[in-house]
Amino acid sequence: MERITKGPATATSPPRPGPPLPGGPAAAPSPAAGLLDGVPRQRGAAAASAPACRPRPAVRPWRLLPTPAGTPFTFAYASVLAVTSVVAAVADPALVHALHQGSSTDVAHLIRTPVSVLTASALWIAGGIVSPYALAFLLVLTALERRTGGVRAAGVFLAGHVLATLATEVPVGLAVLAGHLPPTSLHRLDYGISFGVAASIGALAGLLRPWLRWPLLVSVAGTLLSDLYAYADPLTNWGHLIALTIGMAAWPLLRRPHRPVQAVR
Q: What pLDDT does residue 47 have?
């Protein structure tokens, strides 16, 4: 039904647009010009009530790498690893071998000086700075620390490094005592950050969305299982799987709210 308005326009009616009056300013165009009376939800009102589009967050690729303010633990640790990697690359090979041997977390060292040898073994990268573990360390530890903070990221890394080392070396000592392995197994060369990196990968996966979490875990676990099947270094391969499981066991703790550091990145 057509709506008909009767009677004169009231004072509250908006003025109609038109040509400028003689000797006076032009009539201001009405915001309701061109709209039908009595018809709701027209384009003028829709435009006025439409919510503003949220701007997309800026892409900052440098956040993939550690910074002194954003990820102090990862940055400091990476600096130490860079120094030891340079020493391993330029020093005399005999000296480097002696340093690695003195930092080895074998049974003999763990019995005599467990704390110092567990600390020293985590200062070297097996394969040097060009090793895949070096890149994994930077990317994984940076992402984990940005999400959980330096204390929890350091705790996950150290738990994987220490617990996986003990889980692989203690059985060796028991096997030597039982006569199943020769005494030379007590001096097995074992050092590096790979156990800590594997634990950090397992922990980080629990903080990712499912479409990233499960492909990451499947690919990493598949690689570790294939290495174990090759049986080239079974103790180290078992240690990597144990460390990955340790990181996954930390999911409930890491998923608690964390207040990130407010600093200029």
A: 46
